[in-house]
Design brief:
Layout (H helix, E strand, L loop, with lengths): L1 E5 L4 H8 L11 E8 L1 H8 L3 H29 L10 E8 L2 H11 L4 E5 L11 H11 L3 E5 L8 E5 L4 H14 L5 E8 L5 H4 L4 H28 L3 E8 L2 H12 L3 E7 L3 H7 L2 H8 L3 E7 L11
Parallel strand pairs: 1-2, 1-4, 2-3, 4-5, 6-7, 6-9, 7-8, 9-10
Antiparallel strand pairs: 5-10
């Protein structure tokens, strides 16, 4: 697996490096430590003074180089390769440009499988929250994105939120093949939107409601049971849960109650008009859940109602 880890010197970006420890048993093929100098923010800071801009840029590049050297040592330690022959190729890049676009562009250029980044960074000083940058990266990136919201050394409890879509199945495969360790327990969660509005439910009997909701619950149960069997075949510990309710609220409540370290969710690539019309469950979840979030990028497919994207 090829990983791009975005760092900016903050405690939160250090969490991204630490999260490599959770992937150490997978021995990633390549880890690229990426530091972005946000030139638009720099230009806003220095005004139209080119001499001052060059001086500040030189200082930032020097600081970025030092930061990356320290990050390489930290990455070797968390990967367990500090005192052994390196099995993971670690490279460093200092790039210039708008933070989110540059991270996504570099990941695409490097053919990365995963972008790893902290949830908040030093660019807060300029009014650019890395929290919002992480959401931009999750939207722009062509590969999967792991947003680290808390220190993560090992994964013990992981939630996989699914629906009956190709991206959800892709997320399950990616989780099994690239992320999970044998010691982790996975909860496969399907949050099912009721086919009946609250208003209509007032005028229906319990029997009528059950007649309408039961087929939806049965399909969701069949889905999670099938995915559970795939995990069990590969030796993972799995539990399943199917709940009817608002998708985002149900996911957030589950993660909070179960104290999961990581939530995994699939995301179908949307056009700009589709994203404007449908919104994005994955982006809403990223904004509201307290734990780290892995958004697995999926292929475009036919639209469906209540799709998890």
């Amino acid at each position: 697996m090829r990983i791009v880890c975005a760092i900016d010197g903050s405690e939160q970006s250090q969490w991204g490096i630490q999260a490599l420890e959770a992937l150490a048993s997978r021995e990633p093929e390549q880890v690229t430590l990426l530091h972005v100098i946000d030139k638009p923010a720099l230009q806003a800071l220095t005004g139209k003074n080119p001499v001052r801009e060059r001086r500040v840029l030189a200082a930032m590049e020097k600081a970025g180089g030092m930061l990356l050297r320290d990050a390489v040592r930290s990455a070797r330690v968390v990967l367990g390769q500090a005192a052994t022959a390196p099995r993971t190729k670690i490279r460093t890049i200092v790039a210039h440009g708008s933070s989110a676009k540059t991270i996504a562009k570099e990941a695409a250029r490097l053919k990365a499988d995963l972008i790893l980044m902290g949830s908040r960074g030093l660019s807060d000083i300029q009014g650019f929250l890395l929290g919002s940058i992480s959401r931009q990266v999750a939207s722009l990136a062509s590969c999967s994105v792991w947003v680290v919201k808390q220190p993560t050394h090992k994964l013990h409890h992981v939630a996989l939120a699914v629906d009956d879509s190709a991206p959800s199945r892709a997320a399950a495969r990616f989780l099994r093949s690239s992320i999970l360790s044998e010691s982790a327990t996975v909860t496969i969660l399907s949050a099912v939107q009721s086919p009946v509005t609250d208003f209509a439910a007032r005028y229906l009997s319990d029997a009528q409601l059950a007649e309408l909701t039961q087929p939806v619950m049965e399909r969701a149960t069949t889905l999670v049971n099938g995915l559970r069997n795939d995990f069990i075949k590969e030796g993972f510990s799995v539990v399943t849960q199917v709940e009817m309710g608002h998708v985002v609220e149900t996911i957030v409540k589950h993660v909070e109650a179960n104290r999961d370290e990581l939530l995994v969710i699939g995301s179908r690539d949307l056009s700009k008009s589709e994203r404007l019309y449908l919104g994005s469950v994955s982006e809403s979840v990223l904004r509201h859940v307290p734990c780290s979030v892995l958004i697995v990028r999926g292929a475009r497919g036919p639209l469906r109602r209540n799709i998890m994207v």
